[in-house]
């Protein structure tokens, strides 16, 4: 770059010299093959210390050969005429105003060797910030690094605020009855509360004296004659009658007294017990034994059961106790029955009997011996 700059400068000087020598005929041309004259600055640099002008000889007049005084350059001489002039010196008595003649530079010489590289310059001032470049494309995802070691447990955070109450869950299945707990100590007598509402109907009182026999009803119409049967059995087998039934679910009389029905049959010898109605219908007169077992599982409600013969009260079973929630009660009776009598159990209004697949509540009866008159 430096060499190219030097060539451009030399070319400009050559063009200037040619223009100067061609436009003014009075300036003598330097013959070819002669060494061109140097400028004052180059002359000063080429002079040795012995030949450099001193202060006394510095102001000597340099003669201007072959130039008329009429064409000497002045301060008003226009540029481009081939003259190079310096400003006039201040006039003195011994040294009138004269102009130095500056020799015309010759053609440029060959470029000199490249000089040594100079020291780096000082950093220039920081330029203004450029415009932001367009964002680059997203790079590809790197491969996952190896799993780090497990960190130590952090400090326990503050307790969060309570969450929103969830919807009620589906009711769970009924659990099995737990064991009966120990009876707790009797509490202090409380204050008398306000009068309660009228309670349920009380227990039916004892049966009154037997009334006189009513008038005999009209005989019914005769039934159809049966087919002749064959019997190859003893008389004792003909007169066997027995039944035993149970409940597998609880029962509550919520709309008046109700006949207890049964949903499990242990036995029904002779078929005199009707599972659909809960009644035992006598077909063989004789002496019968009946037994009742009922179970309770609540302190708020309790069982109250009667055994009825043809609608008349015979015996009852009750299990009352506000501090007792798991209990069983029973009763038994022997009755003389005639053909056509019916026996069943009645649950009082508002009372409850408990049972499950364990069959806590049962009703049984059987013929002890027939009685033919």
What does this structure look like?
The chain has 373 residues and is mostly beta strands. Helices cover 9% and strands 19% of the residues. It is built from 3 helices and 13 strands. The chain has helices spanning 2-23, 40-46, 235-238, and strands at residues 242-246, 251-252, 258-259, 264-269, 273-274, 279-281, 286-296, 304-309, 312-318, 327-337, 342-347, 352-353, 362-370. The strands form 3 sheets. Strands 3, 5, 6, 8, 9 and 11 form a 6-stranded antiparallel β-sheet that branches. The chain has a 5-stranded antiparallel β-sheet with strand order 4-1-13-7-10, with no helix packed on it. Strands 2-12 form a two-stranded antiparallel sheet. Strand 8 (304-309) and strand 9 (312-318) form a beta hairpin. The longest helix has 22 residues, at 2-23. The radius of gyration is 73 Å and the shape is rod-shaped. Mean pLDDT is 76; it is low at 22-31, 33-44, 46-62, 64-71 and 80-86.
Content-based structural category: mainly beta
Alpha-carbon distance between the two ends: 157 Å
Average residue-wise pLDDT: 76
Percent range for helical residues? Answer: under 10%
Count of helical segments? 3
User: Which percent range describes the beta-strand content?
Assistant: 15-25%
Give a count of the beta strands, DSSP E runs of length 2 or more: 13
Shape verdict: rod-shaped
Series of secondary-structure elements, N-terminal to C-terminal: HHHEEEEEEEEEEEEE
């Amino acid at each position: 770059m430096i060499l190219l700059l030097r060539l451009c400068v030399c070319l400009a000087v050559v063009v200037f010299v040619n223009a100067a020598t061609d436009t003014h005929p009075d300036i003598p041309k330097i013959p070819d093959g002669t060494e061109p004259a140097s400028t004052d600055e180059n002359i000063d640099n080429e002079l040795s210390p012995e030949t450099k002008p001193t202060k006394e000889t510095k102001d000597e007049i340099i003669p201007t050969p072959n130039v008329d005084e009429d064409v000497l350059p002045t301060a008003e001489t226009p540029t481009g005429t081939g003259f190079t002039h310096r400003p006039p010196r201040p006039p003195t008595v011994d040294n009138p105003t004269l102009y130095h003649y500056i020799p015309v530079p010759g053609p440029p010489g060959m470029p000199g060797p490249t000089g040594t590289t100079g020291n780096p310059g000082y950093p220039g001032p920081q330029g203004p910030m450029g415009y932001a470049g367009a964002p680059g494309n997203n790079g590809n995802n790197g491969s996952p690094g190896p799993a780090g070691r497990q960190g130590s447990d952090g400090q326990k955070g503050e307790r969060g605020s309570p969450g929103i109450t969830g919807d009620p869950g589906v009711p769970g299945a009924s659990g099995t009855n737990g064991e009966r707990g120990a009876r707790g100590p009797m509490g202090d007598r409380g204050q008398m509360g306000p009068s309660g509402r009228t309670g349920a109907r009380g227990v039916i009182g004892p049966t009154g004296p037997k009334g006189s026999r009513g008038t005999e009803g009209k005989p019914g119409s005769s039934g159809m004659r049966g087919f002749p049967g064959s019997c190859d059995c003893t008389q004792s087998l003909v007169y066997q009658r027995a039944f035993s039934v149970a409940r597998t679910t609880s029962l509550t009389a919520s709309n008046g007294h109700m006949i207890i029905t049964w949903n499990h049959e242990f036995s029904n010898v002779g078929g005199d017990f009707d599972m659909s109605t809960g009644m035992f219908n006598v077909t063989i007169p004789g002496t019968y034994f009946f037994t009742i077992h009922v179970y309770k599982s609540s302190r708020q409600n309790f069982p109250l059961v009667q055994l009825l013969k043809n609608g008349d009260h015979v015996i009852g079973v009750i299990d009352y106790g506000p501090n007792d929630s798991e209990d069983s009660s029973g009763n038994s009776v022997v009755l003389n029955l005639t053909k056509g009598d019916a026996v069943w159990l009645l649950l009082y209004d508002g009372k409850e009997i408990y049972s499950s697949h364990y069959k806590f509540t049962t009703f049984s009866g059987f013929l002890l011996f027939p009685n033919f008159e």
